[in-house]
Design brief:
It contains eight helices and 15 strands. It has 313 residues and is of the alpha/beta class. Bound molecules: zinc ion.
């Protein structure tokens, strides 16, 4: 997910989208229609190599919607049946309410009107994504790779968590590497993206994983920019970024399933758009309740006749 930079919105969106989609070292082939969409900067291609997202300006999102009414299936697998989530708390999260807020989030996707949007996506056998998600646990990693992580080191964090037995090896899961605010991801966290997802072969299995940094490190780029409904700017921002990466991982786990002609996956098409919001009792801004908590989570793309961004289906 790209950063929410007001200037060069279109560029940011694409850069983030690509980053999220692009595995380290792999760049998606340029799309013939893309330069037109990237105008006026024209730099989108070079930026695609990075990991994924940050928040694009609303104007950019609107432009994307008006030009692409849909999203295209490219033949690859989806994550089907009950999908699983694991968290790896990297760095120092002691005393941070994020560990509770975001565990509650992961426990609340299943059966929600929000996650139901993803059931509009299907594979070559016409099997649709299920609105069924299980959060199966977490582990911690106290800076095993230091405080400046390369993309390969982030995969290493996931690999270590599995090989050490702290987390099971599960190819129908998304492993989230959640870094504390003192940790950077050197391929562009805070400058090009706020998070990304990809996959890799770990222990002989196709493992899907995602990096999501703490927006406390760069609130102007990666927080939601409004009062946090759970009183934690970083965690409330991560709730939206995690949701973004998760729904993309489910519908495009190997980066060869659902995305549009600009290379944008479902959540990319609606990044940093919120739909209708309300004010919570503590003065926060939210747009949905999942479980017992209010969150401000970006809209997602409904794959329908015209296609649209929405908060629920
Ligand atoms: Zn994305």
């Amino acid at each position: 997910m790209h950063i929410r930079t007001p200037v060069s919105i279109a560029l940011s969106c694409l850069a983030l989208a690509w980053a999220a989609s692009a595995p380290a070292g792999t760049v998606r082939p340029a799309d013939p229609g893309e330069e037109e969409d990237l105008v006026p900067t024209g730099k989108g291609v070079g930026e695609r190599a990075g990991p994924e997202h940050q928040r694009p300006p609303f104007a950019a999102s609107t432009a994307a919607r008006s030009r692409t009414n849909g999203i295209v299936y490219h033949g690859g697998p989806l994550m089907l049946g009950t999908t699983h989530i694991y968290y790896i708390w990297y760095g120092n999260w002691s005393g941070n309410s994020a560990t509770t807020i975001l565990a509650d989030l992961a426990n609340s996707y299943s059966g929600s009107p929000y996650f139901n949007i993803n059931t509009t996506y299907y594979d070559a056998s016409n099997t649709h994504v299920s609105n069924s998600v299980s959060y199966l646990g977490s582990t911690t990693d106290a800076y095993s790779q230091g405080k400046a992580l390369s993309d390969s080191q982030i995969q290493g964090v996931v690999s270590s968590a599995i090989s050490s037995g702290h987390l099971p090896k599960d190819s129908n899961a998304v492993y989230f590497v959640l870094t504390s605010a003192d940790v950077n991801a050197t391929s562009g966290f805070c400058t090009q993206y706020c998070g990304w997802h990809t996959h890799g072969t770990i222990g002989g299995a196709d493992i899907k994983y995602s990096f999501v940094g703490n927006p406390d490190r760069c609130p102007a780029a990666c927080s939601n920019g409004t009062p946090p409904p759970n009183g934690n700017v970083g965690a409330d921002g991560m709730a939206s970024i995690i949701s973004h990466e998760f729904e993309e991982a489910v519908t495009d786990p190997d980066l060869n399933a659902w995305y549009d002609r600009r290379g944008e996956e479902n959540a990319d098409k609606c990044a940093w758009t919120w739909g209708s919001t309300y004010t919570t009792a503590n003065g926060g801004t939210a747009n949905m309740k999942l479980g017992t908590r209010d969150y401000l989570i970006q809209q997602n793309w409904i794959r329908a006749t015209q296609g649209k961004c929405a908060l629920h289906l």
